[in-house]
Write a structure and sequence with these properties.
The complex is a heterotrimer of chains A (324), B (235) and C (286). Chain A is mainly α. Chain A has helices spanning 10-33, 36-62, 69-86, 92-116, 119-139, 141-144, 169-192, 194-204, 206-212, 216-242, 252-265, 272-291, 296-309, 319-323; strands at residues 150-151, 157-159, 163-165, 244-245. In chain A, strands 1-4 form a two-stranded antiparallel sheet. Chain A starts with 9 loop residues before the first helix and ends with a helix. Chain B has 235 residues and is an alpha/beta fold. Chain B has helices at residues 40-47, 73-76, 93-101, 108-121, 123-127, 138-150, 168-183, 195-201, 219-224, 227-233, and strands spanning 2-11, 14-24, 29-33, 52-60, 63-64, 78-81, 156-160, 187-192, 204-209, 212-218. In chain B, α3 (93-101) runs parallel beside α6 (138-150). The longest helix of chain B is centred in the C-terminal third of the chain and has 16 residues, at 168-183. The two termini of chain B are 31 Å apart. In chain C, β1 (127-130) and β2 form a beta hairpin. The longest helix of chain C has 31 residues, at 2-32. Chain C starts with a helix and ends in an 11-residue tail after the last helix. The chains are: A mainly alpha (324), B alpha/beta (235), C mainly alpha (286). Chains in contact: A-C, B-C. At the A-C interface, α5, α11 and α13 of A face α4, α9 and α11 of C.
């Protein structure tokens, strides 16, 4: 049954927005209150969270697992790199544009397959596609810098050509925060719209949805496009923050980590992925001090335990409330 | 021997069995009649641990079946011949039988004897023993399903609509098999839509409607007074 | 021309090893619907165990057996602790769980054996001459061994008592249980068997390129491709597909770099999924 969203009870809606405002406020203050390392850390959490959120559109809402989000992310990154390297002076708008177009192009390609393959076949093919992109990027050294990737300079933050200034870590953080918040609100609006309801209905029971008369293929295509674009956006932001693009980010491991953030944080919540990213990255940060690269052993075990005993993730219990 | 006391069962949210109470004593043939969808198959599934039991008790030879894993029932002496027969289509006839023959503690001699016995009842199975189960006709598959249950040397066989979709000649054959099993001392809980066959084979009959047992009488009584059958089955 | 012969041999040999890996994977998938992301990593672990045994005893055959047994036990333990609780849940959860296992195994191998590449010395020395070309004997021996092991598996499945249990459970789990087959044990057994096959493949492949922590992922991806192209759960199809794909990749490697040759198998996968989703070597269903 496709339920039309019931109007959230007043206290609930208010509670949500208050919590939201508090979190955003904290994130705004963060760069001012934290030492530089943690400042960057928070910014990175936002970017990875955005990537994971884009994946949630597919996993959490449409019921399609993607193991290939690293491709969209990587293309966004390399697209931005292309803009920042080829056009002088480096332009923020162009970086965004190139990145989104690159990711969008890949999304169209993947979307086509999404409509023809179901469940695990789709998952495997996304994995395969991202590996294809990885191989191409890794070996096409003249264009992509191969193994070493590309380095470039940050664009300036310019608003409507009126005022432009270099980014400081703080202003970059605010920029990223702004982009992420807007993205989140946009995606939230979409998932709570009738369109989003159909996506969820596809997740719950695809044959039924089709039988009722919905063009499931069209909805899936749009979902993949949205997912790919926001993932590409995350890639652009990452490129801007770090000033380099490398094939490592297109490798499967990134896709895998994205899925981990989704599962740990809670699928189908949109904020869960952020929590999952934060949780994972904090664990990694904390544990790698003592265990260096072996942090993945306890973290991997925690992940497995969560799948068995806490499948709805950290924020999964909020799913109903967040989607009401 | 097999006692269902006030059993309730659910499929998901649907409440499909309400307080079903049935008893099958050792060596008895008991019939379970009713229209389509009244819960006869569900009752068998509840015994086999396949439907979610939400109330009541099922005991076999005095021991509660609650908590017995599905693969433990055959060892206790309960065999199941499902409505759809569920032959292992890609296994040969012999391999199908072996799933029941290869039991812990069974000697090769006993295995061979059982196989021979089953081939004697169903000569066609000996003929087709190396053929894939899926290539058999409907009637042959039904025989294989029953044979498969027989090699478990069960104390009771749950027989679900064995004559469904079969030609009259085969129906007669099934009737004979049921009599033969009865003579062998195997109890049978016979779910059927075929009323005459049931009244002929069974000693007692339960009649179900809407997930519960509505009537219980000896086959003789039901044969004498056909009104009850008309009322519940419209036959 | 010489290149083509050499590459054909490469393709056949690699294909046999891949066939062993894929057999385990397709067996596991066919019976319990689990996409074992960690399959390649079990292979890797087997290779490391094998390398250690060869390192201490110098006996390749012992290494093969020990690796298979150790990883079989590990596989059984993994299935019991992490996969059994997930039976009946959304298939996504088992993929994720095996993905998690994969991560843990990789890092564990790194911790236990360090980052340097381990070697397994070839069990058989010398080259074999085909026309005027030299080809290492051990590679041929590997292919033959793999073929023997796969045949053994096939015979076991066809005639063994447990083979019948496995096939019956694969076809109809519920009816198998009704016949008294202890399905949970069968699941554990099959997972252990698949793991053992993976481990043995790792030891067989060890002498080819050395043993590293990351060798598993490549095999996992290729094995997935093979299993889909060959038809999920179809043992014969997997074997044919393994050889087919390995040959294609080997020939492609004449023209492009080996790293890029892998795209060939991906293309085959995509085409298969689009046009013959039940498998390239499987007759199209009515």
């Amino acid at each position: 049954m496709i339920a039309t969203p019931a109007a959230p009870s007043r206290p609930r809606a208010a509670g949500y927005w208050i919590a939201f405002a508090v979190v955003v406020a904290l994130l705004v203050i963060a760069p001012l209150a934290l030492p530089p390392f943690w400042q960057r850390f928070v910014t990175e959490i936002l970017i990875w969270g955005l990537l994971a959120m884009s994946s949630d559109i597919l996993i959490g809402y449409t019921g399609m697992v993607s193991f290939g989000h690293s491709a969209f992310f990587g293309l966004g990154m390399y697209g931005a790199a292309a803009a920042l390297l080829t056009v002088k002076p480096p332009s923020l708008v162009l970086a965004l544009l190139y990145g989104l177009v690159a990711a969008g192009g890949a999304a169209v390609f993947v979307a086509y397959f999404a409509t023809r393959l179901r469940d695990i076949y789709f998952g495997i093919s996304t994995l395969v596609f991202s590996q294809i992109f990885y191989v191409i990027i890794f070996t096409w050294t003249e264009v992509t810098g191969g193994e070493n990737g590309l380095t470039f300079s940050q664009p300036r933050l310019s608003i409507l050509g009126l005022w432009s200034d270099r980014f400081t870590p703080t202003t970059l953080h605010w920029f990223v925060l702004a982009v992420v918040v807007v993205s989140y609100l946009l995606v939230r609006r979409i998932t709570q719209s009738p369109f989003g309801m159909v996506l969820q209905s596809i997740r719950e029971n695809e044959p039924r949805t089709r039988a009722i008369g919905y063009h499931v293929e069209r909805y899936k295509i749009v979902a993949v496009m949205l997912s790919g674009l926001f993932a590409g956006l995350a890639g652009v932001l990452y490129a801007m923050q770090n000033k380099f693009a490398a094939p490592d980010f297109v490798f499967f491991v990134v896709s895998g980590e994205v899925v981990i953030y989704n599962v740990m944080g809670g699928m189908g919540t949109l904020v869960g992925p952020f929590a999952g990213a934060a949780f994972f990255l904090l664990l990694r940060e904390g544990l790698s001090r003592y265990l260096t690269e072996y942090y993945l052993i306890p973290v991997g075990i925690i992940f497995i335990i969560m799948i068995i005993f806490l499948p709805q993730g950290l924020l999964g219990f909020l799913r109903r409330r967040l989607n009401a | 021997m097999l006692i269902l006391e006030n059993v309730d069962a659910h499929y998901g949210k649907a409440h499909v069995l309400h307080g079903v109470s049935i008893e099958v004593r050792a060596g008895e043939v008991v019939g379970l009649l009713g229209r389509n969808g009244v819960g006869k198959t569900t009752t068998l599934k509840a015994i086999m641990g396949m439907a979610r039991r939400t109330g009541g008790r099922i005991t076999f030879e005095g021991r509660d079946l609650q908590g017995v894993p599905p693969h433990g029932l055959a060892g206790r002496g309960i065999a199941w011949v499902p409505e759809e027969r569920r032959i292992f289509r890609l296994l040969t006839v012999l391999e199908n039988l072996r799933t029941g023959l290869d039991r812990p503690g069974i000697t090769p001699a006993r295995r061979d004897a059982l196989l021979e016995k089953v081939y004697a009842y169903f000569p066609i199975l000996r003929e087709r023993r190396n053929q894939a189960g899926g290539t058999l006709s409907g009637g042959e598959q039904q025989m294989l399903a029953i044979a498969r249950a027989m090699v478990l040397e069960p104390k009771i066989i749950l027989l679900d609509e064995p004559t469904e979709g079969l030609m009259p000649r085969m129906v007669a054959q099934i009737q004979e098999i049921v009599h033969a099993l009865h003579r062998d001392g195997v109890a049978i809980l016979l779910v059927e839509q075929n009323v005459p066959l049931t009244l002929d084979a069974a000693g007692r009959v339960y009649i179900m409607e809407k997930g519960t047992v509505r009537h219980h009488a000896s086959a003789a009584e039901l044969r004498a007074d056909q009104r009850v059958i008309h009322e519940y089955l419209g036959v | 021309m010489d290149q083509i012969i050499i590459q054909t041999l490469h393709g056949l040999v690699n294909g046999m090893v891949l066939a062993m890996v894929a057999s385990g994977l397709t067996l596991i998938f066919g019976i319990m619907d689990i996409v074992n992301f960690a399959h390649g990593d079990l292979l890797m672990l087997g290779a490391f165990v094998g390398a250690s045994v060869v390192g201490t005893t110098g006996n390749y055959w012992l290494a093969l057996i020990v690796a298979a047994i150790v990883i079989a036990i590990l596989g059984a333990l993994l299935q019991i602790t992490t996969l059994r609780p997930l039976i009946g849940r959304d298939p996504l959860t088992t993929i994720l769980a095996t993905f998690g296992i994969s991560l843990v195994i990789q890092k564990y191998a790194l911790w236990q054996w360090g980052p340097s590449v381990r070697q397994i010395s070839e069990p058989v020395r010398g080259d074999f001459t085909l026309f005027h070309l030299q080809y290492p004997w051990y590679r041929i021996a590997t292919a033959i061994l793999a073929a023997l092991i796969i045949s053994g598996l096939w015979l076991f499945l066809k005639y063994g008592k447990y083979g019948i249990w496995i096939r019956a459970t694969t076809q109809d789990r519920v009816m198998a249980q009704a016949m008294g087959i202890p399905v949970p044990l069968v699941y554990t057994g099959v997972f252990a068997l698949g793991s053992a096959m993976a481990a043995a493949s790792g030891v067989l492949f060890g002498p080819f390129a050395g043993v590293t922590q990351t060798m598993g992922f490549d095999f996992t991806v290729r094995a997935f491709v093979v299993v889909v192209v060959g038809g999920l759960g179809n043992l014969g199809g997997s074997i044919l597909a393994s050889i087919f794909i390995s040959l294609l990749e080997s020939y492609a490697a004449i023209v492009v770099s080996p790293a890029q040759a892998v795209i060939v198998s991906f293309v085959v996968l995509v085409l298969t999924m689009l046009f013959r989703p039940t498998g390239l070597f499987v007759p199209t269903p009515k």
